[in-house]
Records
---
Amino acid sequence: MRILKLLFDFYINSSIHVGLSCYALVRMTQHMFHISYEETIANFAFFGTVVGYNFVKYDALARAKKAQMRTELKLIALFSLCSLALVGYYFFLLERITQITAIAFLSITLLYTLPFFPNRKNARNWVGVKIYIVALCWAGVTIGLPLLNAEVAITSDFFLKCIQRFILIFVLVLVFEIIDMSNDDPYLQTVPQKIGAKMTKKLGITLMILFYFLEFMKSNFDVKQLIVNFVLVVLVSLSLLFVNKKRSKYYTSFWVESIPILWWLMVVFI
């Protein structure tokens, strides 16, 4: 059991699980826009997410050298380096416009992590900004990059799906913010810090209802997608209703981050 727990913790802590969530959302976009499966962009998103999240999580620790690296952190660093090499490989297989856009999102990630201006905090610590940066990057990577790489025409459906994806990620991040309420610096002014956990839950559920009804505005919606989206809305809403500051880290880092994967699996197997 101890070995299984160590493997599971490595799976979570090395950002493999969140990488699979990003991969699933890219595959979901390909399904929605009838793009034949193209592994380059999906794999680029997976390995890019692994590298990006590990950089955000462990960069400060590595630079400050506050603690000697444990075996797990060394393995995560090695895995991240391998993932970085694969990101580079898949990057050069992308279309030029996709590469340029990907660099733009990389720049936002670096701004989110590193303080570029003297005596200023990074974007992660800007008041009330964090959740919007995360939602924007995820929407851009999982909607914008796959469509650009497949050279799909930009229509009203594209903008509609971008709004839906932004809402989905925004609400999922709210779950994280509720759990982190007591640990986050009050200066950050996260949504739960400003309006409270109860109102944050109401806001999230309201946004998910909006997410669902936006589907009816598509140029041609199908019943299967409406059913799948309804299940998604229920899952996200339940994750909000049952979240509290005492939940373990696995509540968000595994169960909540599994929701995009389950959403994609539903369209695959239903």
---
Amino acid sequence: MRIGQATPEDVDVISTILAEIEAYYGGEPTPGDPAQIRAALFAGRPAATVLLAREGNEVLGLASYSLLWPAAGADTSLYLKELFVRESARRRGVAGAFMEALQAAAAAAGCSRVEWTADADNPAALAFYKALGAEPRGGKIFYRIS
């Protein structure tokens, strides 16, 4: 297995995986719009970076992140927005490999930390993060305006 940054040639598989993510969370498995994906990830000012895990020609999953500033003082943090391993590749070390790659990306970018959120009703994710030694942090409430 290898993990590397997605390229414009990966737009179609990213679109397919976004549909799988929607289905996983109970939504309609609608693929992402390739034009929106291309603009978000590969335009002059990308909104995020996507890492893909591959085994041969098969894409096993994706991790999407952005850099946030300020984190603490004038530090920058890497914010993991989505970590998703396709059903056929789960329990094979893919998520752990993603977390290692994300920590390496954070170090290379000079970030002081890696941060993320997890759904409270996703016990598999919560157990995985606990096994990594990550502890939930209180003190912040998540908000959204549509």
---
Amino acid sequence: MAPNDSALITGRSGESGDAPAGRGRASRYVVPIAVAGVAAATIGLVPALAASGDPDLPKISAEELIEKIAASETERFSGTVKVSTDLGFPSLGGLGGSAAGAFAPKGGAGGSGSAADPTARAMELATGEHTLRVAADGPERQRVSILDSADEYSLIHNDDEVWAYDSASNEAYHAEVPGGAAKSPGRDAGKGADKGGPVPEDLPATPRDFAREALKAAGDTTAVTVDGTARVAGRDAYQLLIKPKQSGSTIGSVTVAVDSETGTPLKFTLRPSGGGKAAIDVGFTKVDFSRPAASTFDFTPPKGAKVTEADEAERAGGKDTHKAPEGLKDLKDADGVMGPGSEPNVIGEGWTTVVRLDTGGKGPGGATKDAPAEARQFLDALGDKVEGKFGSGTVFKTRLVNALMTDDGEVYVGAVTQDTLVKAANAAK
């Protein structure tokens, strides 16, 4: 691939289609797989011409390529997607299971007591490498299968029914949604979806899902160019390169490989400003834009499978699964820590946006002042102690999302550096 030499322009807007249905407030800031949308809140367009490369494609400007993505009407496809995520979460060793359990909904991993409940499965894609088999036939029929071992997990939406099946446990989860309003797995189909539905509303599964998040709006904080061409999943593609103009972001660049014929994003790669391997890399390895066979979306539970009905799970308490994690709710009730009702304050713009959350309680320093020395030492080892006009606090880091928790109970979080978090906390005082 040859890089493209081009001048920058800003101030134009571009969209890549309808934004996904609204997320719960807690997941919006907790689930790290959404960081691309938060970090790329504003994008300035660049009229860049694609340089000659391999394959040799007609020249196109970045503005035209973004318009091509927005105009893409691809609703039918099937293929294989590879997802690789390395967000750099700190390892808690043997505490990992206990920590996860503290924030797990009641009733088991999925909250309903079923190993097939789709709620918990979305988080699996936030770490490691995964292979997905995907298929879609318009807004009424989609299927996503996770193929990480000899076992298989599938989420199927077919008109007014949603099935999830876990072959390892031979358990199935079933929900009925009037009028086929269920949010499609990994797609933005099903407009007017029931926001209180029984399946996760946002399960990114294809490059298009991630690209849509990164191309929601435009502004003056980002440069966009066409950075040559590529072959992805056997198809000719343009490479759209998105980079921040601002300093202080943990996002280095986003590259979207766009199918030259259909305008469909085929690959999405997000690289951190600190260098190293991609933090998020999602791409088709095989893709077919013809209509999948109708049988692809048929599902009947195997003989002997345990079937959990969504309405039964809700009556048994599984309804809380699709709300805020129980651990966050309990913390708010007991200690005043932020729950789903808290409204965040936004500081800054573009790639250096920081979200401020007032928990109403004590941060790690204040809360553990009277804790045993071993407990204080453990918490200090997880982050870096910082001081400023705001007082003192601890910064907890990943490769993309960092959070400053002050000792007086405020939280500042964003895809920004430690210095940017400290500046935001100082400015808020």
---
Amino acid sequence: MTILYLHGLESKLSAAKKAILEQYATVIAPDLDYKNNPDAVQQIYEIYKTEAIDYVMGSSMGGFAAYHLGLAFNKPVLLFNPALVKRSVVQNIPDFKAPSSGFGQVVLGGKDTVVDPSDTLSFLGDQLKRGFDYHVHLRAEMSHRTPKDIFEEEVGLFFELQGIVR
């Protein structure tokens, strides 16, 4: 199995978090430049469209990209504080033919001052009307960055919902 993990705007997937993901699958974590490439999502799609991707995950800007690529690849997504509504840099949204349903787990920090969780909840509400099954986990204690313990717990819950136990 393979996870495509997309990092946030000014971050990278840490070795500790990558090790958590590697307990479940092979991890592909490309280095992305969202600031200088407004077509990063389309570019990622072109690079990985022939790969056997099983899950798409991401945080913040990477959550935005993972959301759209999950639709394009028709794969389950795990999103941490995804920038689905507002972004600080321009990113073009490709016109992927979206499936009529899908699964996603979205983790939102109640103390996030970078990505407003209420905007994300409103966005997801509209997606539910299209038949998407989203599990939303509101973490009141979490800010924008996801602590390792919460990351590990949420990844475990995601795979448990997929019927996979490590």
